[in-house]
């Protein structure tokens, strides 16, 4: 072990809100259920939310505190800065990490990811770092797809780039999801190939 941090919340909480956090937050809301990563970011499922930690900036760059109505069970990184998550509420959602110029937005919490020892600063350096974070380019997780088909907790899913997404649930169903635009293009391509083989394409021209 190289570093450890047991405090999920901001390392410098306000005194008037610390007691409220202890009373209102349930242990399940701050439990880490799953994580994945790529060359730039670490994606973490915490309670019902999703957090994105940038390895170069050493801070949280985006989060969705209520990505689902219940606990997030599993997440996976897709190409094109996309992320898939499934939940106990039976939903499967697709997110896209998009850049956003953070001018007067609400600050993104960073305390949780200090468990790796990243982003920890002393009191003398806290102000310059805070100003630098405010001026930095942040991101947001935008919901771009909601797959509705299960009636109970979605336990797991597998993503295949050429074949689609497979989800399994406590409702005893296994569903194969396809990209509609991609499949439509493949069907059109096969149709033109069939017409070309039969010579009908040249007759129509």
Automatic annotation (TrEMBL):
UniProt keyword list: Autophagy, Cytoplasm, Repeat, WD repeat
UniProt-listed InterPro entries: WD40/YVTN_repeat-like_dom_sf (IPR015943), WD40_repeat_CS (IPR019775), WD40_repeat_dom_sf (IPR036322), WD40_rpt (IPR001680), WDR41 (IPR040102)
Gene Ontology biological process terms, A to Z: autophagy; regulation of autophagy
PROSITE patterns: WD_REPEATS_1, WD_REPEATS_2, WD_REPEATS_REGION
Glycosyltransferase listed as a keyword: no
GO CC terms: lysosomal membrane
WD repeats: 65-105
Subcellular localization: Cytoplasm
SUPFAM superfamilies recorded: WD40 repeat-like (SSF50978)
Residue ranges the record marks as coiled coil: none
Subunit structure: Component of the C9orf72-SMCR8 complex, at least composed of C9orf72, SMCR8 and WDR41. The complex is formed of two protomers, each individually consisting of one molecule each of C9orf72, SMCR8 and WDR41. The protomers homodimerize via an interaction between C9orf72 (via C-terminus) and SMCR8 (via N-terminus). Within each protomer SMCR8 (via DENN domain) acts as a bridging protein between WDR41 (via C-terminus and N-terminus) and C9orf72 (via C-terminus). The C9orf72-SMCR8 complex associates with the ULK1/ATG1 kinase complex.
PANTHER family: WD REPEAT-CONTAINING PROTEIN 41, WDR41-RELATED
Protein role: Non-catalytic component of the C9orf72-SMCR8 complex, a complex that has guanine nucleotide exchange factor (GEF) activity and regulates autophagy. The C9orf72-SMCR8 complex promotes the exchange of GDP to GTP, converting inactive GDP-bound RAB8A and RAB39B into their active GTP-bound form, thereby promoting autophagosome maturation. As part of the C9orf72-SMCR8 complex, stimulates RAB8A and RAB11A GTPase activity in vitro, however WDR42 is shown not be an essential complex component for this function.
Protein name, per record: WD repeat-containing protein 41
């Amino acid at each position: 072990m190289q570093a450890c941090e047991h405090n999920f919340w901001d390392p410098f909480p306000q005194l008037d809100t610390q007691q409220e956090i202890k009373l209102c937050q349930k242990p399940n809301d701050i439990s880490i259920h799953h994580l994945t990563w790529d060359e730039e970011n670490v994606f973490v499922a915490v309670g019902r939310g999703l957090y994105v930690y940038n390895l170069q900036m050493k801070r949280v760059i985006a989060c969705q505190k209520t990505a689902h109505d219940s606990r997030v069970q599993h997440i996976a990184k897709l190409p094109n800065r996309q992320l898939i998550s499934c939940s106990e509420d039976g939903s499967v959602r697709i997110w896209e990490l998009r850049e956003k110029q953070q001018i007067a937005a609400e600050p993104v919490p960073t305390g949780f990811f200090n468990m790796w020892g990243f982003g920890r600063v002393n009191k003398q350096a806290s102000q310059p770092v805070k100003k630098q974070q405010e001026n930095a380019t942040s991101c947001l997780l935008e919901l771009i797809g909601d797959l509705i088909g299960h009636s109970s907790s979605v336990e797991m899913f597998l993503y295949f780039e050429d074949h689609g997404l497979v989800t399994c649930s406590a409702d005893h169903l296994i569903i194969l999801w396809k990209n509609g635009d991609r499949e439509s293009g493949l069907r059109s391509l096969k149709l033109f190939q069939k017409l070309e083989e039969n010579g009908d394409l040249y007759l129509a021209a």
